[in-house]
Amino acid sequence: MNDHRKLGRELDLFDTDPLIGAGLPYWLPDGAVVRHTLEEYIRTAERRAGYRHVYSPVLGKRELYEISGHWSHYSDDMFPPMDLGGEQVVLRPSLCPHHAVIYRSRSHSYRELPLRMAELGGMYRSELSGVLGGLTRVRAIQLNDAHIFCTLDQVAEEAQAALELIRRAYRALGVRPARFRLSLPGPGGKYVAAPEMWQRSTALLTEVLDHSGLPYEAAEGEAAFYGPKIDVQVTDSAGRESTLSTVQVDFHQPARFDLHYIGPDGAKHRPVMIHRSIIGSVERAVAQLIEEHGGAFPAWLAPTQLAILPVSEAELPNAEALARRCTGLGLRTEIAGPERGSLGARIRDARLVPYQAVIGAREAADDHVALRLRDGRRHDPQSAAEVLARIVALVDAHSTGLWDQGEVPGPGAGRLLRRRRAAR
């Protein structure tokens, strides 16, 4: 089994220390590369989908969470308030109250809707020590969160588009959902008491799932305290299931924060708030990626994308020149020189790197490389420029494939490389 806790330490991705605290992992350089690359992918995908990004503080007054309903329904999972200047402030357990306040800070016309607001922001949850584990259950969370403020007529289309964003991200990441779940309220008092609101929001999400054609299961007792949600479930290497992504419909917080927009009739109307997360917490997403791929990440996400292996010291200058070209193209490269052992040993050490470029005397003379792929395929010596162009194209496309079924680079690859170099 690929246990992300074990692999994360073996591959120098992340670690923990009792002095920092339980449930508070720190990221090592290679893990930070994976995290940063994942975050940039999400931000870019959101921008292209019409989201605008904001930043909000990780602290808020207790009153903020009393208004949102978190204090009465969720305070057991929150850190205790801190007294500050005669006020009580709290480490936030969620980003949605801040986004509701940001929306409320400006007046809005129906012409602005849907308004899509996104943030990769920190939040904190007072998890019990017994449930903490690696990156999957932590106390400091970096959440990929977004909120869509829209009219009732726009809810189904916006929720459907959010679900498609999630599905596209999973394809790029090589993550397989275990199942889709319609999470509904269950017995008990942890839910907002508003039967009509629950009925409307459940009907909307059911419509979205039915229209998508995705198989799904309804599960009582799994809803958020303010509304039902579509949860995308994944399983870890031990078969344990958890939620990675979610789409939620919320009539509760727009009313609590008195949100409104000016309609075509000139009157005030209440927007609907859709909560949407493509990958949930960055920590849990990286844990899932480590276990799905066993540390052999898709090329676009790999900490080192190309290992350069000069056969002898004589080819080291060529390796260094190739590494500089890679850096100029935005590729993450490492030179594994003869000082690290035999060529065979270096190839084995780089077994998780997607591409290995071997440079011997012949390759150095012709500006060629002998390319080896992580899956064991080898190519005859080829032009370094054409090889880099193919790798760049696959990385830019966020492909999970290594070489398009083993094809050699086409004649247009060099032109692509020159355009990328000029853009940089």
Strand content: 15-25%
Distance between the termini: 41 Å
What is the share of helical residues? 25-40%
Shape, please? Answer: elongated
Instruction: Please give the radius of gyration in angstroms.
Output: 25 Å
Could you characterize the architecture of this molecule?
36% of the residues lie in helices and 23% in strands. The chain has helices at 4-10, 29-48, 62-68, 70-74, 96-104, 155-173, 195-212, 252-256, 282-293, 316-328, 343-349, 361-366, 384-396, 413-423; strands at 14-15, 26-27, 52-53, 59-61, 82-84, 87-91, 115-124, 140-150, 179-184, 216-220, 229-235, 241-250, 261-262, 268-269, 272-277, 306-310, 333-335, 355-359, 368-373, 382-383. The strands form 5 sheets. It has an 8-stranded mixed β-sheet with strand order 3-7-8-15-12-11-9-10, sandwiched between helices. Strands 17-16-18-19-20 form a 5-stranded mixed β-sheet, sandwiched between helices. Helix 6 crosses helix 7 (195-212) and helix 13 (384-396) packs across helix 14. The protein is elongated, with a radius of gyration of 25 Å. Residues 405-421 have low confidence and may be disordered.
How would the blueprint of this fold be written?
Blueprint: H1 4-10, E1 14-15, E2 26-27, H2 29-48, E3 52-53, E4 59-61, H3 62-68, H4 70-74, E5 82-84, E6 87-91, H5 96-104, E7 115-124, E8 140-150, H6 155-173, E9 179-184, H7 195-212, E10 216-220, E11 229-235, E12 241-250, H8 252-256, E13 261-262, E14 268-269, E15 272-277, H9 282-293, E16 306-310, H10 316-328, E17 333-335, H11 343-349, E18 355-359, H12 361-366, E19 368-373, E20 382-383, H13 384-396, H14 413-423
Parallel strand pairs: 3-7, 9-10, 16-17, 16-18
Antiparallel strand pairs: 1-2, 4-6, 5-6, 7-8, 8-15, 9-11, 11-12, 12-15, 13-14, 18-19, 19-20
